[in-house]
Amino acid sequence: MGTAAAPRRFCRCACFCSENLYVARYGLHVRFRSEQQLRQDYGPILRSRGCVSPKDFQQLLGELEKEVERRQRLGQESAARKALIASSYHPARPDVYSSLQDVALAPEFLAAAEYSTSPGADLQGLLQRLETVSEEKRIYRLPVFTASFCQALLEELDHFEQSDMPKGRPNTMNNYGVLLHELGLDEPLVTPLRERFLQPLMALLYPEYRGWLDSHRAFVVKYAPGQDRELGCHYDNAELTLNVALGKAFTGGALYFGDLFQAPSALANPLEVEHVVGQGILHRGGQLHGARPLGTGERWNLVVWLRASAVRNRLCPMCCRKPDLVDDEGFGDGFTREEPATVDVCALT
After folding, report:
1. What is the residue range of 35's domain?
2. Which of 13, 111, 240, 333 could make an S-S bridge to 316, C-beta 3.0–4.6 Å?
3. Model pTM?
């Protein structure tokens, strides 16, 4: 009798604790290894953005040291939160934890995914079934979830937010939202969404990643008065991204896009894309983007970072070096210790 293969072990790059630390007050991502390095690399730009006095700089140092410590504890603390939620949390909408059913998905999304798996499917045929936001930037949009499923998911997220369960930050820039793997929604919702629907869709839209999207990181971000209202320029730690507006009623908060791997300081005349509830925006993770300030109401978005270990095992998208792998929980940051298939990294840019 054969032995079942061991589950793949995913990792993160060690740069996670030193690269791309976001300083919201100065609208800047920085590398941080020491005070001397920080002054040398970022002194002029920090001063130009208001970090002028010794007190300002010491406050910044304290914030960066605290963020490094938070990142070092992240995997262990996330696993502990997930275990506590699994044992003690009582959902308001148990139905959203059932395995993803077609009834939750918009007919347009189902049709596009079905076409993508049909014999002879090609890019031009798929483009007739979705909206091309920007041909040049390869940004697309289509309905993903039904209104009733968006409402059910929002009810569950509201219930969890108001509970006394521990909550982790959705990512290193947003402070309010939910990590779906901690809530227990990765396996029933996000994994089938990626494997059954997004993989064939993305294979036609972004053929350079065909067959390689083997993990993800999914979270919901919340924008509201008195909480996060906007999001600065950044790249995603992903090969591809799906961003779905779940609701609620809101004004403002449009996404804006620059070029692929463009320096944030060089952003000019960005492309703005308004959110439509239930619809998802598809783009490359390396596409510079951000979110305009919320006007009124609350905006909740489901974001799925799609990752390809065969690509990132060669070059970490955050530090642009061969990754220094560190074992991590769950899907980690999408790296593996296995030898990937041959990938032409230059062709991806």
Report:
1. 14-88
2. 13
3. 0.91
